[in-house]
Amino acid sequence: MKGLVLAAPLAGISTRPFRVLAIGLGAAMTYTEMISSDGIIRHQKKTRALMEFGPDEQPLGIQLFGSNPEIMGQAATIVREQFHPDLIDLNFGCPVKKVVRKNGGAAVLKDLKLTEDIIRAVVEAAHEIPVTIKIRSGWDETRPVYVEAGRIAEKAGAAAITLHARSRSRGFTGVADWSAIKRLKESINIPVIGNGDIKNPTDAKRMLTETGCDAVMVGRMSIGNPFIFSQINHYLRTGELPAEPSLADKIELALNYVRMMVDQFGEIRGIKKTRRNLVWLMKGFPQAAEMRSRLFQIETFEDFCDLMKNYQKDNIIAME
User: Fold this and answer.
1) For the chain, domain boundaries
2) What is the pTM of this model?
3) Which of 5, 71, 82, 182 is deepest in the core (most CB within 10 A)?
4) Where are the alpha helices (DSSP H) in 196-245?
């Protein structure tokens, strides 16, 4: 892995097109969306599609979730034999109700024996493929378990651990407790990746400095600003804040993204899946509110190209 900034797995976002963008902009690693171990062992077509990737998305981790060690091990065997990712990541951090209701995601942290059993089963099944885990600080504020979970993960054979420094009960609210990342790093010997509230390059540098973590992971902020990976890399390398991307750069990125989404999912589905992401990408654009409204009216890639062409022309004239 080259670089210190990873692109977090994001449900509905971490499709192949977004992963290609992230790697192209300097992300050290990308991940698939969170994938159900049950769906894998049932050989569901949609689940299989989520795991397909190409070399232009690598290094890449396939992220699994589930609550049954045997099934998780079986799923890891299929992933190893049929897909050959750079690593397998286990999600013990997702706070979404439909996931934790099935005892998956962050719910696993309520039973650290189960956490250990799952890690051991997947490590054994993965063979030479490294297994990492992503956790929250705990199920709720009353019982932080990240240090204990980290020690268990290390003992069970995990190669690294990512800590989103919030409990499951806090979702994405409040401020991430970076001191937890520091405490975890001081408590275990495997690499620790810090996650939570990295909004810009200075945040990334500060997290690395304050916590001693080995790398940082950027999630929600990359949706509206995929350039953040190259921006962080530049700042860590030079100590200088990079110039903001130009309007032309942002439009070119948006066009490339939509083109790849259409290629991946077909025109109708690709455009539909892209609209919400484009709303985030357009944040900060001149006349952004009007643009967002018009985005939900486009139906074809040609529509989007025309919209961007006219938008760029109007704004260049306005700036002159």
Assistant:
1) 5-238, 247-319
2) 0.93
3) 5
4) 201-211, 220-224, 228-238
